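If your schedule permits, I should be very grateful for your opinion on a structural question. I have a record of one protein: its chain in single-letter code and its fold written as discrete structure tokens. Would you kindly read the sequence against the tokens and tell me how you understand this chain to fold? Thank you for your consideration; the sequence and its tokens are set out here.


***
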Amino acid sequence: MAKVVIYTSAWCPFCIRAKQLLGNKGVAFEEISVDGRADVRNAMSQKAGRTSVPQIWIDQTHVGGCDDLYALERAGRLDALLQG
């Protein structure tokens, strides 16, 4: 199984949706909260090239945000990425 990392904020509805999709698939993930942590948000932004959350990585692949994750699911490509 691939390693999944998701940067989130507690009140972000897109973060909640992304975590629900991963949870429904039985995927364990490392969640990193950016709430009140400018250094963590800055590091995420540098790594992702984006400032919004969620930002999701599957192994070394930057998936993007919630919409990107759901697009992979609709295209039938998410499960293959999760298998590693």
